[in-house]
Amino acid sequence: VCAGTLNGLSVTGDAQHQYQTLHKMYNNCEIVMGNLEIVLIDHTQDLSFLQTIREVTGYILIAMNVFASLPLQNLRVIRGTQFYEEKYALFVLLNYNPNTTHALRQLGLNQLTEILAGGVYIEKNAQLCHVETVEWRDIMRDPGLEPVVRE
After folding, report:
1. What is the pTM of this model?
2. Which residues form the Receptor L-domain domain (predicted)?
3. Taking a C-beta distance cutoff of 8 angstroms, is the pair 35, 60 a contact?
4. CA distances in angstroms from 149 to 6, 42, 53, 121, listed in the order given
5. What is the three-class DSSP state of 97?
6. Based on CB atoms within 10 Å of each CB, which residue in 25, 44, 78, 120 is the most buried?
């Protein structure tokens, strides 16, 4: 078990510092108590240490990154005890660099079966594939929320 963060889009230091902090917090972690915020990570970083995460109690924020793949293939549950922007348990935004070919191409959430509370927001990820083929409503427990998936 490891602690999550509540920083949103604010970051301290450069991309290297962000990566080192992320690695220190989540290496060998299976359950994130709180939020998993992955912000401003470069395409050269090895994120394989994230594959041990099976559960996040808060929300997941993936924003302003340029790595190709997110290795969260063992993540099964997002509990949504906290929301990003007051209603989202999974928020994926602006994961590409318009000046290069570096961009998020796949989320790799193939084991994700439940979002217990909160919605899904995925936008402005120029090269992200297959998100429109996911039946987000089957994963989201709250029938009153519509998943937002565009661009």
Report:
1. 0.94
2. 28-139
3. yes
4. 24, 24, 24, 6
5. coil
6. 78
pLDDT in tens, 47-102: 999 999 999 999 999 999 999 999 999 999 999 999 999 999 999 999 998 877 89
Query: Which residue ranges make up each domain of the chain?
Result: 2-149
Q: How many residues does the chain have?
A: 151
Q: Identify the H or E element spanning 119.
A: strand 119-123
Residue 86: what pLDDT? 95
- Which residues are bridge partners to 90 per DSSP? 60, 120
Which CATH superfamily is 2-149 part of?
Receptor L-domain (3.80.20.20)
Read off the tokens for 145.
Answer: 């929320």
CA of residue 134 relative to chain centroid, distance: 15
Closest Cα to residue 147, out of 115, 107, 109, 106? 115
Tokens of 94: 């602006």
Amino acid at 61: L
